[in-house]
Design brief:
heterodimer, A: alpha/beta, 2 domains, 4-stranded parallel β-sheet, 13 helices, 8 strands, B: alpha/beta, Rossmann fold, 6-stranded parallel β-sheet, 4-stranded mixed β-sheet, 23 helices, about 50% helix, globular, binds iron/sulfur cluster
């Protein structure tokens, strides 16, 4: 399995580099504002970004269920769409993890290898590759609880998992702390899974819903107005639950905060 | 496909959650608190991660030289006066134990906790042959009185409240059903067990570690029950899985530092007893059990599961286990370690277990011997999918989406005709539209007027 430490680590990237924007299917269809925020943010940072129009899905729903036969067409198409790009950036930790870690049952051609090594989740790209140190255009006068997804924490290493001993770090928090007015609130169980888990949320509906509800209460208890995450899929689930029981919490993607909208 | 035999953890977990407002939250909170103690204990050891690495390496080394270490263990244990037996499977294990008991005319036996004996279904086997078997571990005894298997490998009755235990003791021992003071309940069981230790003709234990160079095995408990069971009756029988071997005595230093910290968030178990040969005037039998372990050792993707030291940390940290209760797994081993072990006993029966996980990965990070549990769960899903054990609804829906997602024209055409929010939702969330499990507890995201792709076409090209 490729981990973030094995992926290429360019400190500086030139403006001529071609950045492919990877917008996962559910963001395309249900959260277009997250795609827009990501694109605008990368453009503001002076990058040459384009969005390959033929993209559909990375194959994760099938792959995560063990169904490599049915995930293969989506994976091949992904490679076809993005093979020309120097970096592929997606605002979704779990989908990036799918590309980086689980594109392993298709033929490992040079193109596939290139793609697995150069696909980045937005936060890690901003934090590790671009090393962005300010977002002067952004202001967010709210209290925010961070929800780093499990794929982002334990798959991509954007924060230290609580189980592993060592010096704590959280790349999402580092970026958000550079936004004017934003107040981060600590929560009781920052990296306990929220229960989304892809198809798990429907196949194991009762457990999933219970986990999501506890997550929302944890956020609320600590006075968060907003829950901000690099993974909209977890938020889609948490938001669905909070709305159903009438909890006053708002859910947005980290790209929307860093780009100052659209909300 | 005949589903009669298949375990349905999602359904059982739902029953656990819906049962009342007490059990599931208590279960979750207790195990979460245990994890927090574990985190604090681990953090107090600067070389924690290094210890995990060393423990993993020792186990890998031992498992890849297992024949050598097993023979050394047998030779050294025999030299010290123990009788060593080899059991290929559960049936052989049970027969061996039964014949030892029979030879000694034992009618009543007291045992301490052993997941291996549980795995072999030893107690019902012996009882059907007229031998009385008493559990001496408090949690195991509670489960035995209730006719249930353990729900956790370290805390067998953790899914029960104090009130449940008080009521159970009232039914089975005749105590006051309203007195649920834990000290009282423990004392009741202690007094109940004492005469059984004296009456027993044999004591049985498991073994946490078996040391090849000395023929010693080690039993770790908090109640000291294993020690009485091994010391009072004249006959001691220990069942030990062949994966429990470590090469040297000094290796125990590594594992003991990890075991109780990972299991309960305490520096050490109260009793960490070494048994080297029989005690004076006593007799010691060691049954080394395979029961599928050497087959597992030959599975490239799954043999690392044999490194397990049964600490239960993966269960405590597992968000799904904490909400499900261990009985929901319908197997000897529950939680993440159960998900990767149980299918090696029966792939079809346990084919749903790998899907009873969010793949959050916390188990892999907590495991003191660095088993890649989460990756193995993922790989078991692939095995189940290949065998056609994916739930039918998933199979049908993925066959459709697998095709559509590989063909952008069809995909975008489908996107165009979709109108209400439910049609915008990716197929995988709504694989069974008539039941709509997404919507039972959640609102759907709001309808959007324009997809990102449409916005991009209008604004950037
Ligand atoms: S798999 Fe690891 S964490 Fe789980 S019980 Fe075994 S040793 Fe402990």
């Amino acid at each position: 399995m490729t981990t973030q430490s094995e992926a290429t680590n360019h400190k500086t990237i030139s403006k001529d580099m071609r950045i492919g924007l990877f917008i996962p299917c559910y963001i395309d269809m249900m959260f277009p504002e997250v795609g827009i925020a990501t694109l605008q943010l990368l453009e503001r940072l002076g990058l040459n970004v384009s969005y390959p129009l033929n993209q559909t899905c990375c194959g994760q729903p099938m792959s995560n269920s063990g169904d490599e036969v049915n995930s293969a067409p989506a994976e091949h198409l992904f490679v076809e769409n993005f093979k020309e790009y120097d970096f592929i950036i997606g605002p979704a930790g779990s989908c990036v993890k799918q590309v980086r870690c689980h594109f392993d049952t298709i033929d490992q051609t040079d193109e596939v290898k290139h793609i697995r090594q150069h696909t980045y989740e937005l936060v890690e790209f901003l934090h590790d590759i671009l090393q962005v140190d300010s977002f002067p255009w952004a202001e967010f006068q709210h209290s925010v609880a961070i929800h780093n997804s499990c794929s982002s924490i334990r798959g991509l290493g954007i924060a230290k998992p609580s189980e592993i001993m060592g010096v704590p770090f959280d790349k999402t928090a580092n970026l958000l702390s550079k936004v004017k007015g934003l107040v981060l609130v600590p929560v009781d169980r920052p990296d306990d899974c929220c229960g989304f888990g892809g198809t798990f949320c429907v196949t194991d509906e009762a457990v999933s819903a219970r986990m999501g509800l506890e997550k929302a209460h944890d956020h609320l208890r600590h006075g968060a107005e907003y829950v901000v995450s690099p993974d909209m899929s977890c938020l889609m689930h948490q938001q669905g639950i909070a709305r159903r029981v009438g909890l006053n919490l708002k859910y947005i993607h980290v790209a929307q905060v860093l780009n100052d909208g659209p909300f | 496909m005949d589903n009669a035999n298949q375990v349905d953890p999602a359904k059982s977990a739902e029953l656990f959650i819906l049962h009342d407002q007490v059990h599931e939250p208590m279960h979750d909170r207790f195990l979460w608190a245990t994890m927090q103690r574990r985190d604090a204990e681990a953090a107090a050891i600067p070389e924690w991660e290094e210890l995990r690495e060393i423990a993993s390496k020792i186990k890998e080394h031992t498992l890849t030289h297992l024949d050598h270490y097993l023979e050394a263990f047998e030779a050294n244990a025999t030299k010290r006066g123990a009788h060593v037996h080899w059991a290929l499977d559960a049936a052989e294990h049970n027969e061996i134990v039964f014949s030892i008991l029979k030879d000694h005319g034992v009618e009543e036996m007291i045992k301490s906790k052993s997941m291996l004996q549980e795995e072999c279904q030893m107690t019902p086997f012996l009882q059907s042959r007229g031998i009385k078997v008493i559990e001496s571990d408090l949690g195991e005894r509670i489960q035995q009185l209730d006719g249930q298997p353990p729900s956790h490998i370290v805390f067998p009755a953790i899914h029960k409240t104090r009130k449940d235990v008080a009521e159970l003791f009232a039914r089975s021992v005749g105590t006051d059903p309203n007195n649920d003071d834990p000290h009282f309940l423990t004392e009741v069981m202690r007094n109940n067990a004492r005469p059984r230790f004296l009456a027993a003709g044999a004591g049985m234990t498991g073994g946490n570690f078996a040391v090849a160079e000395t023929g010693t095995f080690m039993v770790c408990t908090n109640e000291g029950n294993a020690d009485i069971g091994a010391s009072v009756p004249p006959l001691h029988i220990a069942s030990i899985g062949i994966e429990k071997l470590v090469p040297r005595v000094e290796d125990l230093g590594v594992f003991l530092r990890l075991l109780s910290r990972s299991a309960e968030g305490t520096p050490l178990t109260q009793y960490s007893s070494h048994f080297t040969g029989p005690r004076k005037g006593g007799e010691l039998h060691i049954v080394l059990v395979d029961n599928g372990r050497s087959r597992r050792l030959g599975m490239p993707d799954f043999w690392h599961s044999l490194k397990c030291i049964r600490c239960g940390a993966c269960m405590n940290t597992c968000p799904v286990y904490r909400r499900s209760g261990g009985l929901a797994y319908g197997a000897t081993y529950s939680g993440p370690i159960g998900v990767i072990l149980d299918p090696t006993f029966d792939e079809f029966k346990y084919s749903e277990l790998p899907f009873h996980s969010t793949l959050c990965g916390s188990c892999t990070d907590v495991c003191p011997v660095k088993i890649d549990i989460s990756d193995q769960i993922f790989k078991w899903r692939r095995v189940m999918a290949k065998k056609g054990y994916l739930p039918l609804a998933k199979r049908l829906s993925f066959a459709v989406s697998g095709h559509v997602l590989g063909h952008p024209e069809e995909y975008h055409a489908m996107e165009k005709v979709a109108e209400p929010a439910i049609d915008y939702a990716p197929h995988f969330l709504l694989y069974n539209r008539s039941l709509n499990p997404w919507g039972r507890d959640r609102e759907l995201p709001q309808i959007v007027k324009q997809t990102f792709r449409e916005w991009y076409l209008a604004n950037r090209s």
